[in-house]
Structures are given as C-alpha cells and as structure tokens.
Design a protein that fits this description.
Its main location: membrane. It is found in: Cell membrane. Keywords: Cell membrane, Disulfide bond, Glycoprotein, Immunoglobulin domain, Lipoprotein, Membrane, Signal. GO terms for molecular function: GTPase activator activity; integrin binding. The protein has a single domain, classed as Immunoglobulin-like (Sandwich). It is 30% helix and 30% strand. The strands form 2 sheets. The protein has a 4-stranded antiparallel β-sheet, with no helix packed on it. Strands 4-3-7-8 form a 4-stranded antiparallel β-sheet, with no helix packed on it. Helix 1 crosses helix 2. The longest helix has 25 residues. It is extended, with a radius of gyration of 20 Å. The structure holds 2-acetamido-2-deoxy-beta-D-glucopyranose (2 copies). The site of one 2-acetamido-2-deoxy-beta-D-glucopyranose (NAG) has 4 residues, from strand 7. One 2-acetamido-2-deoxy-beta-D-glucopyranose binds next to strand 7.
C-alpha cells in the first residue's frame, strides 16, 4: 500500500513536468484574458522567445488604434489609458494589467511582440461580462487534467493487474 502511494506521487511529479514542458514548447502567440478580483483586466500574451537572447524584446497592447501600454518607455500610451495600464515582459510572456475596465461593448485588444524588426500581433475580444476570474491553476487544470489522468491511470492499472 505504502509503495503504491509513493509510486503515485512519483508519477504525479513526472506528469507535471511533462505538462510544463509541453506548455513551454508551444510556438505561436497565445492571448488569454481574465478579470482580477479587483475587477481589473489581466491579459497574458505568450510567445516563443527568439533564439538570440540578446535581442531586445518590446511588447505593447493596442485597442481601437490606441496604444494601451508598452514596455518601450519612449512610447507614451494614449491619454485614455494614462496611469491605468501596466505592461511587463518576461522570458516568454507579456502581461497587461488594466485598471478601470469599462462594462460597455466588447472590444478587440491586440498584443504585439517585437523581437526583430516586424512586430507580431495577436488579437482577442474582451467582454467584461464574459471574462473568467483570474486563477493560474484553472488554466492548468483544464488543459492538463485529461493528460494527467492518463499518465496516472496507466501505470496504476498495470500495477493493480
Ligand atoms: C521605442 O519607441 C520610440 C518612440 O516611439 C521608437 O522611436 C523606438 O524605435 C522604439 N524602440 C524600439 C526598440 O522599438
Ligand atoms: C474584432 O475584430 C474582428 C476581426 O477583425 C471583427 O470581426 C470584430 O467585429 C471585432 N470586434 C469588435 C468588438 O470590435
């Protein structure tokens, strides 16, 4: 019995690493959005880092042809978004945090990642009434649960049989 539990823990850890690996290997841009518990908008734009780590990465968000925010400090945001938006970039994600998201009609938000000369865009519709509450774990559970179950069940079954 004890042995099975240890095995289970081992497989859980193993499957988690596999999932993390699979997630970070994605190549195209991905844009997701959610509503924080303070009712602010959080958008996460995932990208594949250029192979040259020394290349300067710039990320910015636009909506209705207005600059919401940019990691380029020389590009001031549109006056509508002044002091409301924060854009930050890390290894392979660019985050937008926007305060005072209005309830009115849905709007398209576009994330641009500029690693070489041409920025690469990805657009998503943001509708405040349809946004999910932010929670890092939910995303992981939705995409990973089935896979995780498979990984856990197979070795366990073979052990029981
Ligand atoms: C940052 O913004 C300034 C002003 O818009 C622009 O001239 C400059 O090329 C930008 N820098 C990069 C790395 O894109
Ligand atoms: C967002 O962009 C798509 C594609 O360009 C367009 O069909 C749609 O009407 C836009 N939605 C809003 C709310 O502007």
């Amino acid at each position: 019995m004890q042995y099975t539990v240890v095995r289970m823990m081992y497989y859980t850890v193993f499957a988690t690493f596999l999932l993390l690996g699979a997630a970070s290997a994605q190549t195209s841009l991905q844009l997701s959005s959610c509503l924080t518990k303070e009712q602010n908008l959080e958008m996460v734009c995932k990208f594949t880092p250029a192979s040259d780590p020394k290349l300067q990465k710039i990320c910015y968000y636009m909506t209705e042809n207005k600059l919401v925010g940019s990691t380029n400090t020389s590009s001031p945001p549109d006056s509508t978004f002044k002091n409301r938006a924060t854009v930050s970039i890390a290894d392979n994600i660019c985050k937008l945090y926007l305060k005072g998201l209005s309830d009115d009609k849905p709007k398209n938000y576009t994330c641009f990642i500029k690693q070489t000369t041409t920025p690469v865009p990805i657009t998503a519709v943001v509708d405040k009434s349809k946004l999910q509450t932010c929670s890092g774990w939910c995303v992981m559970q939705h995409s990973g649960a089935a896979l995780l179950l498979t990984f856990l069940t197979l070795p366990l079954l073979s052990e029981l049989l």
